[in-house]
Amino acid sequence: MKDLVEKYRLLGSFLIGVVLSFFVILIWFGNQKSIEQSQKNKVRETAKLVTHQFKSAVHDNINTLLNLKSRLEITDGTYFDFWEYDAGHIINQDSSFLLVEWIDSSMVIRKVEPLEPNKNAIGLDISKLDYRRIDWLQARQDSLVNITHWLKLVQGPNAFLVDAPVYYDGVFQGTISAGMDFNPRFDLIMQGLDQYLVKIYDHKGTLFYQHGDSSVASSLKGFSAEEKITLEGTNKDFWKVSVFPNTIFEAENNSDGFFLNIALGIILSVVISVLFYFMQTAFIAQKSFRQANDKIRAFIDSSPMAIYTIDTDGIVRDFWNKAAEDMLGWTQEEAIGHFLPHVGEEMKGEFKQLMSVNLKEKEVKNKEIIRYRKDGSLIQMRLSASQIIGNGSEKKQMLIIAEDITNEVEYKKQLENSVHEKEVLLSEVHHRVKNNLAIIAGLIELQKEGLSDENLKLILRETQNRIYSISGVHELLYNTDSFTEITFGEYAVKLIDRIRGMFDSPGKNVVIEHKFDSRRLNINQAIPLGLLVNELITNSFKHAFNDRNEGRIYISLEEKEDLIQVVYEDDGQGFDENLFDQSNTLGVTLIKTLVDQLNAKYNIESDSGFRFAFSFKITGRGAHSNL
């Protein structure tokens, strides 16, 4: 009989191993198909992503050309005075532009930048070029941007020629045209994507860009993807983008390791079947079970947390450890078999609600409650409860773990009160500073009323602006949830509007363009930076546009890693750069002092207009960086 039972135990364990191995194999084949589909999806998604970025790069360059066209149309051609500067600026900023040229309505190239390498193009009649004439005339007729196929330029390298028709005075005047090679920008987009071979063809099917080596194409079949770069607003339909995974992709996504997985799965199935065989003998280990139970009870009794078990009616059933006795006051004999002694009559409704949540959710975690001690005092407790017994007709029981958090709650209240008091104090300090600065500015305003000297009035207005620069920081601090930082962009816009209002006059049109990162700056950096912007704009209004009725100022603030980079430009008359180091005027002295205060590195360019670029490290948080 014993041998027969042993035989059936062995047979049952063997069948379990076979069934588990069968399921492991099924799951493995399913995973293989899922992995292959995932790889295909990865290639498709990559193709969509890079195509979108390629398209954005192309349209960015076209929009740059259209912006130049718009300036010519808006000014009825007077912007040609700045054409060489603007075209040269575009080429210097974007390596995709090889050249920018002006083709008049008679189809003759009249201007080109850069001039030196492209002199041969001046005077070229493109009506004699078959590959240019038809599309150029079509773009003129339809008022659309014309993009040629990939071709070799008269001036040298291969590129696309892009023509933007220009109309003003109700007449077609010609085209702003550019030679563009998008390969450098596409190479930047493809950085980090060496596991793909990418080819791009123009509308005639000519390959003009390739990333990766065709000789290392992957052996994976059916994994390639094709997308289109649509050319909206032009007289061409689209370019085709083909993406293929190469051997690097194949190596990174190699699924050979899954063969090891199936082997491990089968081995695990065998192990489980063996364990099942031996587990059948474990039922005789009652003595070990009792020892384990005794250890659990010893652990509960020695725990610093109050631990006890109750049923759904709140009757203490089994455990009521020493920590529960010390925390609440009732002994184990007084508690077991009775309703929870620390739940007062007015607390029974809350207890029933907690019990219903426990029955529904199977557990309650970190619930803060108030209960009574035996001496009648209140105790704050953090409670967790989970079901441990209860199936069918058997009444459910819950294991309760509780800790005394009375002191913790009191300390938390003290901290919250302390923080609130400090917030009120800081708010009042900033409010008073702002009001005092406003009083000083108002006194200066009163002083101006009694003056007839316009130069002295201007000096006082500049002093007011400096005070307003500081006051603006405190105003933002008073109206925000932080007492140490402000959003510099919001502050700078208000500052610019105030300075513009000070210098605006009839017939004077100075455009101020700005681009501010939403970076929050520490007050100790925001104030000198605001004063520095104030001085730069004031100096531009006073000195840069003396002989002109219009001008342009550009300000940008950008965060890169741990640096703030600021660029200030105006297209005024400029000045000798050496004078900046030698000048001892108040404005220049303030600029130097504020740059030093920011620990900034700066660079000045004044070949054409004025450009002042500087950068400084972002001040970290801490007592050293805040007021």
Q: Give the overall form.
A: flat
* Helical/strand content category: alpha+beta
Mean pLDDT: 79
| CATH topology call of the domain at 412-617 | Heat Shock Protein 90
The CATH superfamily of the domain at 412-617 appears as Histidine kinase-like ATPase, C-terminal domain
CATH-defined architecture of the domain at 412-617: 2-Layer Sandwich
Low-confidence stretches: 621-627
Main beta sheet strand tally, sense and closure: 6 strands, antiparallel
Helical region count?
Answer: 16
Percentage of residues assigned to helices: 40-55%
The count of strands amounts to 22
Q: Classify the beta-strand content into a percent band.
A: 15-25%
From the N-terminal CA to the C-terminal CA, the straight-line distance is: 89 Å
